[in-house]
């Protein structure tokens, strides 16, 4: 169990790192901290003393406590062989394949990787970035967190840029940052998938997209563009937007409302395969057959989708290749070679979850 002293120390440090208190901003008084944490003056002084030693806090005699410029010397030793890899997740979905591709290339080049995940949360992204910088990594491979939303960690990314730490993004990239990247042409890919469903005779299609990530926004825009090119069908398009962390129950309620309509969708295009598998399970619970009653398609070519019943029609994602390409680009950056971003054009993987609509 965390003791009171550690609770005060960790709480203050978290408030400073998160940006709640800016550099040179005055901190609460000892009395205020005693009241906030329900601890003794000795406990507060002990916690503050440690943070002073760690260069997070400085005192002015008679003036109080202030936030020190806690950004440490993050310059990288010339001989370090450690690469930081930050993804939104690590152990599930497509991420083990991406990480495996990164590790195979980097290990052959004599590098080790330090992994961290953000769970698609900006606060956790900040902690991951600081941890990587404290570990003196030689370079960074990062999957952006909630890339479609304003990023509160711009100060750290600017510091990374100023320190010229080799860094690149995978799967997406922040529009405001000009780091190189390896990603997929999500917009065009989703447009092709919707056109594929049109060719199967589907006109009323429900698109479900996660819109706090650029990938989801691009895929949604591809869905919209496909309908724009079929103006006679545009009134039959339906879209559900959601954000990471949203309760699946609420999402399924929204899907159920569409299924009750007179012109209910005959096909559902999902943000990714993970969602598509969950949607198929939900449809089965509603006594709907996939694909006989309604077709479902995904994105990412998740391995499990191949063995699911029905096997999932999807769009390919260059998982291992993306990891390997990102690692090779980073090695070139470490060697001060010029590089260009990589964007994959993907293809439809036809299986059994989408079929020709019966007339």
How would you describe what is shown here?
It is a single chain. The protein has helices at 4-17, 30-37, 41-53, 95-108, 122-134, 154-162, 186-199, 214-228, 248-259, 273-285, 303-307, 319-334, and strands at residues 57-60, 64-67, 82-87, 112-117, 139-142, 167-170, 181-184, 205-210, 237-242, 267-270, 295-297, 314-315, 342-344, 348-349. The N and C termini lie far apart (65 Å). α6 links the parallel β5 (139-142) and β6 (167-170). The protein has 3 domains: 4-67, Orthogonal Bundle (Arc Repressor Mutant, subunit A); 82-184 and 320-343, 3-Layer(aba) Sandwich (Rossmann fold), CATH 3.40.50.2300; 186-318, Response regulator (Rossmann fold, 3-Layer(aba) Sandwich), CATH 3.40.50. 41% of the residues lie in helices and 16% in strands. With 359 residues, it is α/β, with parallel strands linked by helices. The mean pLDDT is 93. The strands form 4 sheets. The chain has a 6-stranded parallel sheet with strand order 4-3-5-6-7-13. The protein has a 4-stranded parallel sheet with strand order 9-8-10-11, with helices on both faces. Strands 1-2 form a two-stranded antiparallel ribbon. α2 packs across α3 and α7 (186-199) crosses α8.
What structural class do the secondary elements suggest? alpha/beta
Discrete helix count: 12
**Oligomeric grouping of the chains:** single chain
State the CATH topology of the largest domain: Rossmann fold
Organism: Levilactobacillus koreensis
Keywords: DNA-binding, Transcription, Transcription regulation
GO molecular function, one term: DNA-binding transcription factor activity
Pfam family, one: Peripla_BP_3
